[in-house]
Amino acid sequence: MEKNNALQEGLHRGLEERHIQLIALGGAIGVGLFLGAGAAIKAAGPSLILVYFLAGIIMFYIMRALGEVTVAYPVSGTFSAHSNIFLGPLTGYITGWTYWFMWVVTCMAEITAVGVYFSFWVPEVPQWIPALCALVLMASVNLVSVRAFGEFEFWFALIKVVTILAMIVAGSAMIVFGVANHGVAIGISNLWSNGGFFPHGIEGMIMASTMVMFSYLGIELIGVTAGEAKNPEKSLPAAIDKVFWRILIFYVGSLTIIMSLYPWNQIGTMGSPFVLTFNKLGVRAAAGIINFVVLTAALSSCNSGLFSTGRMLYNLSLQGKAPTMFSKLNDRHVPVKGILVSSGFLLIGVVLNYLVPAQVFVYVTSVATFGALWIWGIILLIQLKYRESLSPEQIAQIKYPMPFSPISNWVSLAFLAFVAIAMFFNPDTRVALYIAPIWFGLIAASYYAAGMHKGDGEKKSLQQ
Question: Considering the chain, what percentage of its residues have pLDDT values greater than 90?
């Protein structure tokens, strides 16, 4: 198969396996877990643990689909570049710009949150000042080199991982040995003694499924690192396999501990479960510690967002689907203009977040929410088309094959469709189903308005 410009990148391969693993962990373990996951717990009760496990299996198949194609075509544009080849130029265009927009909007919210978390210590400082400082810091890190980004993200993610592990170990000691409970083991009876393990039945699990799936948002960042990974054939499969199990342990493990220690129907009214757990151990600075962790989590998300948006604009430019200025690299092989433009949009977002009504911002972020389902669905379809392009002999030689394909693809796609339908029954996510078609319509219209379809048609006729 002929390789196009989207696969001919000049980025520096400076990310090691430890960077990639922690980047994926940091992307998928968000602020919501530390601040309580209260809405999801309220919706499903202890059965939320099962929802996370089932959703985790689906995410595993999505990541393996991503891994199979990315090992064969290791570029930073990943799903955009791959869909450009296997699903057509229009799909590649929509996918690339949707992913860019998804991260820009996510980072707008995260950068604003930095100001809120900072005010915990210094309430007299206007929130926009720490938000602006955080944006300048993260943009500077991304502009230095890909290794600088990788190191910052490694340590940011490590803070979250250590905090979760500390909570799991401390909580387990309370449950099994009665630590901080006068030696009386707390046990796990809270998992079924307050209305049962399924207090709201299957309906509760369905309502929680949308929140659970979006808590995994960011795990696909592994694919965006592909163009700058050292030895991608080795580091990407290792990162995907290890990260999946670790994330599953962190989510399922921490939620099991939390709902064992406290009745699930009281958690949302008592504040952060992490703060409660550390307070129970006698850690007086628990609130300050968790605030520091969520602050670094927000910075981590912004850091990853600037990285991924810069690389997506770079690859879209190589495809001819974004201005050519984004395809220029500096002497450190960094797509500077893509990072700067994305930073500019984040700056606008911080200002807008204070000027426009909160509901407007909710509408915009809802598009990003639906964008996650689009990206994951596209990843599964790309892998199906990739397999179709291979002979039986080539399929047998795939270096990192997706398990049980194509059955696992269709099961995963059906699950994503199920989540999209469930979004309609949740007032907080229903708006995404109304706005998403408008977004996709506008982005598709811009493709034709810019005449890109003509250029793509000419390229196709030349290749035939």
Answer: 47
**CA pair distance 188, 190, nearest whole angstrom:** 5
**218: helix, coil or strand?**
coil
* Residue 458 pLDDT grade (very low, low, confident, very high; cuts 50, 70, 90): very low
Distance CA 435, CA 429 (A): 11
Please state, as a whole number, how many other Cβ atoms lie within 10 Å of the Cβ of residue 324.
9
What is the C-alpha to C-alpha distance for residues 410 and 384, in angstroms, rounded to an integer? 10
Backbone angles phi, psi at 229, to 5 degrees: -85, 135
**Angle ∠(159,161,165) on CA atoms, nearest 5:** 120
Contacts of 446 (CB under 8 A, 6+ apart): none
User: Cα–Cα distance between 138 and 151 in angstroms, integer?
Assistant: 12
pLDDT digits (tens, 9 = 90+) for 94-149: 999 999 999 998 888 888 888 888 888 999 988 888 889 999 999 999 999 898 99
Local structure of 229: helix, strand or coil: strand
Residue bearing the bigger pLDDT, 175 or 356: 175
CB 74 within 8 A of CB 8: no
Q: Return the residue matching tokens 């469709």.
A: 417
Domains, the chain, ordered by start = 17-450 (1.20.1740.10)
Which tokens sit at 28? 């998928």
**Three-state secondary structure call for residue 360:** helix
Give the integer Cα–Cα distance in Å for 387 and 385: 5
**Residue 323: pLDDT above 50?**
yes
Q: How many CA atoms lie within 13 A of 127 on its CB side?
A: 15
Tens of pLDDT, residue by residue over 385-433, are: 999 999 999 999 999 999 999 999 999 999 999 999 998 888 878 888 8
Report yes or no: 273 and 41 within 8 Å, Cβ to Cβ: no
pLDDT tens digits for range 142-165: 999 898 999 998 998 899 889 989
Q: Which amino acid is at 387?
A: R
Distance CA 142, CA 179 (A): 44
Measured CA to CA, the distance from residue 199 to residue 227 in angstroms comes to 46
Question: Which tokens in the block code for residue 72?
Answer: 């064969």
